[in-house]
Amino acid sequence: PPRSTLFPYTTLFRSGTVGVHLKNKKQQDRALKQFVAGDIGPGEMGCGIELLDVNPIVAKEREDMYQAQGFDEYISEHLVSLNRTLPDRRDDWCKANMGDSNYLPSTSVIIIFHNEAWSTLIRTVYSVINRSPEHLLAEVLLVDDASTLEHLGDRLQKAVDEMGPKVRLIRQPERSGLMRTRMVGVIESTSQVLTF
Length: 196
Description:
Elements: E1 6-8, H1 19-36, E2 49-51, H2 56-69, H3 73-78, H4 92-96, E3 107-113, H5 118-131, E4 137-144, H6 154-162, E5 167-171, H7 178-188, E6 193-195
Parallel strand pairs: 3-4, 3-6, 4-5
Antiparallel strand pairs: 1-2
């Protein structure tokens, strides 16, 4: 849609905030100004957006997507980059007291899904890869609990194959539920530390 139909959400932080919340508010306000100026794209730096004055065909597609997934998948799918930038929201104390991460063990990140929207699943994988120190990320395991949506078939396998050796797709032959599917991820993992 034309940029004039995109409307950035105003900040969710209240006036009078202090500490890390004030810093986050300032980061978000700065990102909103960049978006309005056209310097960054929709969804960059965590900015929310809303479509205004959409035509009836787009409105119908958007509503159908919302009913299927329970969130505004239209914006996620068509407007926000799959590989977007996000601010580091950690408190300065956390950043300063991280210690030497070379002594930390690597982790297997296990992502369980069933009939997930394409954009949120792929964006999650990119976020994990882009925001994790390489030496601490052993692998990303996508464990599919027998999804039936077409985009989670060959298209997903091809996307995973292009992401490199740290990303693997494991498929359940039949629907097993969250806990059994998690256990498949545990069994398939190569790291002693697991992150769900």
